[in-house]
């Protein structure tokens, strides 16, 4: 008995087949099939031969491979179940299939947005205790030669890794309970020509990724949470899945459109994304109201629109060894509370934001002394950044955190929280992420005008699950513009620019100790959600002039930048990163060409732009340029503007000058 279902977008079709009411296989996810296509015939056309060294029947490769499938594939669940179909609900954009085995129930839920062409896949399992469950597994065509995943580290996130397909399983496990710096839960799969598949697991917990080629040539990808063997209903997903025939550009376009439509949350969507000032790398824990008032005045003069008071305002927080969990204002530093300072910030024309790290506790805190039983894991475990993790599955913990945070938000005029997470969990526990989501949802309901930034020592918790509840993500703790240039480029397909925080850091970077020019630091930050984070008293007159100029440009252009289409521009030079943003109506664009190290070629290749219309465009340089004696030619864009059609700019391109290491060249185009 064969049952078939299909879901369609304008360019693709996903077909599932269930044999004898067992879990279905995805037999086709590729080009759009005609509406009247026989799915039974399609299934029959894919029936395989059998040869020596095989079982007499080819094993199934289902959305959650089980032991009963008698397959050499990686299991999608570590519980032995014989699931059979019990109900079906479907319409043109959604399919829900329910399966049962005794008290165990498995629910497969697949939805598609025909406009963004993104599929959202979920699997739910209840009635058994599982340590692992994959989101619905999906097949990969044989035309793919490799896949691209992401490694990295703190202050070095989003390092692309190419892995060739070979018989066997490539498995990566993140056991530290959060998304992690080391393994962003996304994969890009080139499939020959310009076809690319993208998948992202939108969960803020430890996960397992499996990319497997079976001996018979079939391939599958699995993404799912590390569950920790805890009973109760568990969900694997959402897994966001899309494919494009337009390369990475098409993937970026689809994912950004889906994010903006279904994921992004803004307290006031009509309000432009503000220019941030964050005081962390200016003062760290040393909070002096007089000094901070001076910094706020300087920030406003440069164009800042939001002042964020970072770590150090509560308990007796003079360093990172104490007071996490004690969310009361430190009267030693703030004898009059925060009200006078907030009034100063607002009088300067800025709103006020504040830092919390709710999920953590220091042993040196009033909270820990009162409730050591609120800690996740044993009390003899190693500390991380001098702190332990609170067990968020305990309702009393979340009630306490809500009460303390709510009290601060109620007492003061605060429109922003920087929500940090600086320690890994002692073991995988998906309940932490679920409880944290519920706490954030509760606070947002009580304070709907407050926006939240997700930070986890920078990029330790970046995923669409946390971003469904937060309006900004701190991409990395590195403010080194050269490192940011690479990180932002690699993260671009997954994160729209308007939600990706990027700050102009100190002249001497605090994480790399490189000294970089303001022109580079400012324009790299202007590629994303712009801000600055330094002791503003260090600025020279020339640096002040540059930062003010770039801030004003970003504010003048952010509206179309944050509704536009981002394109990564390929370059021959591995030390060069180029990208552009084109306005939704294709009347404006900006191009950033960053040179990290010494150029590898004598001269750079022409930049062939993307996404433009048929209009003529006036193109001019808007960044300062000084190539010194290395750039002696008469490159037009060094001194003047050019006018070309969008067709010419894409087919022929533009020649940039020779760039020196640690420099940037920025162009602006406008239809005429």
UniProtKB/TrEMBL annotation:
- Which residue range or ranges hold the Glycosyl hydrolase family 36 N-terminal domain? 87-224
The EC number of this protein is: 3.2.1.22
Q: Which InterPro entries match?
A: Aldolase_TIM (IPR013785), Alpga-gal_N_sf (IPR038417), Alpha-glycosidase_related (IPR050985), GH (IPR017853), Glyco_hydro_36 (IPR002252), Glyco_hydro_36_C (IPR031705), Glyco_hydro_36_N (IPR031704), Glyco_hydro_b (IPR013780)
Which GO terms fall under molecular function for this chain's record?
alpha-galactosidase activity
Q: Which UniProt keywords apply?
A: Glycosidase, Hydrolase
Q: Does the keyword Lipoprotein apply?
A: no
Annotated Glycosyl hydrolase family 36 C-terminal domain ranges read 578-657
Please name the top-level EC class of this enzyme. hydrolase
- Name the Pfam families on file: Glyco_hydro_36C, Glyco_hydro_36N, Melibiase
- What's a single GO BP term from this record? carbohydrate catabolic process
The source's domain of life comes to: Bacteria
**What reaction gets catalysed by this protein?**
Hydrolysis of terminal, non-reducing alpha-D-galactose residues in alpha-D-galactosides, including galactose oligosaccharides, galactomannans and galactolipids
Q: Which residues form the active site?
A: 420 (nucleophile), 477 (proton donor)
- The protein in question is named alpha-galactosidase
Q: Which organism is it from?
A: Pontivivens marinum
